[in-house]
Amino acid sequence: MTSGASVAGQTTSLPAANQRTVWALAWPIILSNITVPMLGLVDTAILGHLDDVQPLAAVAIGAQIFTLLLWSFGFLRMGTTSVTAHAVGQKGIDNSLPLLQQAIWLAIPVSIFCIIAAQILTPLLLPLFGDDPTLHALTADYLTTRFWGIPVTLLQYCLIGWFIGRGETRIPMLMLITANLLNAGLDYYFVWHLHMGATGVALGTVLADVGALTIALIAALQRDLTLRLPLPDRAILKRMIVINRDLFIRTLTLLIVFASFAALGAAQSTEVLAANAVLISLLLLISNALDGFAHAAESLVGRFLGAAQPQQMRRAIQLTGINSLIAAFILVGLFVLAGDHLFRLLTDNEDMLPRLQEMHLWLWLLPLSGVASYWLDGVMVGAQATASMRNSMLAAAALVFFPIALLPGQLAAWSANGEVSANTLLWLAFHLFLLARAAFLIPAIRRIVQTTQK
């Protein structure tokens, strides 16, 4: 079934949900998303081969704080994808431009708020990551530079979400690959030739983001976006705000978990913080690779929902889930084959390598622990079931992660090597948190499927 709903005399025609359709949407996102954590791995490798481990730790802390401030507003990406995909299915691709324009209107006050919040919150958050004044100074320098790129990052969210919602995933691919290649080259030049350390990494990231935004704006202008935006549309903005409110709470909760994870690692030692940062960089590689099918689910589920094609929507949910699971097993196999060689590519610091070698199992399990939650998030965004996303995230954090992660002292008392045991407990909490996110979404996915069968 490829014909959709009739709206105002116009029939919206959509391709059927099959492997070809899923992969046409997923492969550009997979390819581009892999470059995102690859950039983090390049940063880790560049800084990890310095004699001093503190620049790497500073970037780990600074990236967590920047992410806490900015990714809380990742709803600009997901919310824009959701409403755009629904509009494309309901009214056709030519009627999606107003959604991008209204998303940009939302990004303007959010940018102002983030810049102000960054200045206020940074001095309050740094003490959570240990009491080393030198490390705090390096982190503050990194953040001062990154904050210049706040408006650029938020506008990228809007444009990427719009293109994914339209099913034009090759544009985000071009944006992200270009940006990350620029970032890798600039980071190497700033750190190794200009000796700018953590600040050089931040500057390279900002300049690369400007390059990605330029590509996105050129592509949007070719699709009739005008630099002179129409006045805000209250009806569209109200609908976007309702969706984005739930996504904001969901994303903020996730980022609090990540920040707490980093802070609890820093409380053990700088070496533990840095070793955990390496695995978190690899987690970003995993999540971004698997998100290709999640983004495909967002676009397909949203468009089939808007076009009133429930059978195709269920088929899209099934296919994206199967492909996500296959991809997760492939990632596990690659990590097992890589073994210690992967860690040695990222750092030759003799204090960190033994810690990383003890953490193989946690790395190997990450794709399997996270795959269901990443895929289901995509389905929920497409179905505009954002309240379920919010509730599952809150429950997983409050009932699973924090009760386990905040007990390292007790486990340390049972072990002769308390520091390692504390970090083991921290990683156990994180894996169970990923599994719980998916488990708490199962009732919601059942409701969606049952509703479309009526």
Automatic annotation (TrEMBL):
GO CC annotations, alphabetized: plasma membrane
Pfam families for the chain: MatE
Record-annotated membrane-spanning stretches: 21-42, 54-76, 103-126, 146-164, 171-191, 197-221, 247-267, 273-295, 316-339, 359-381, 393-413, 425-445
Cell division as UniProt keyword: no
Membrane topology: Multi-pass membrane protein
Subcellular location: Membrane
Keyword Transmembrane: yes
GO MF annotation, one: antiporter activity
This protein's UniProt keywords: Membrane, Transmembrane, Transmembrane helix, Transport
Highest taxon of source: Bacteria
NCBIfam families assigned: matE
Family, per entry: Belongs to the multi antimicrobial extrusion (MATE) (TC 2.A.66.1) family.
Protein name, entry field: Multidrug resistance protein, MATE family
Organism field: Thalassolituus maritimus
